[in-house]
Amino acid sequence: QVQLVESGGGLVQPGGSLRLSCAASGILFRLYSMGWYRQAPGKQRELVAIITSGGNTNYADSVKGRFTISRDNAKNTVALQMNSLKPEDTADYYCNAERTSISARFWGQGTQVTVSS
Fold it and tell me: Residue 52: is it exposed, middle or buried by C-beta count within 10 angstroms (0-12/13-18/19+)?
């Protein structure tokens, strides 16, 4: 059974930082690209950041320079360090695991991030 369990969300003031973490089980983690997506109320889910099995990263333009994605293959975890948070970063954040070679894609249950004073 595949599980992606996010943690680390919460309420933070503008300019603050949060670190999200996602623990994966039931997959051969090192072979998966891992990503963070977010969905704000009334909006479509969008890609925030992705890190490939080889360690290459890609970010949405809106978070470049503020967010950093990283992975620990020994612990089967992926993290998203979010700095200089803005109110527009408020959303539910979802962990994603994808392995296109076998058409496998999994989602976590999401964690809420609210940026507000």
Answer: middle
Dihedral through CA 100, CA 102, CA 108, CA 113, nearest 10?
A: 0
Q: Which two tokens stand for residue 62?
A: 């809106």
- The answer to whether the CB of 93 falls within 8 A of the CB of 21 is no
Q: Please report which confidence band the pLDDT of residue 17 belongs to, taking 50, 70 and 90 as the band edges.
A: very high
pLDDT at 55: 96
Cα–Cα distances (Å) from 8 to 11, 16, 36, 54, in that order, read: 10, 14, 13, 25
Q: Which residue has the tokens 């296109």?
A: 100
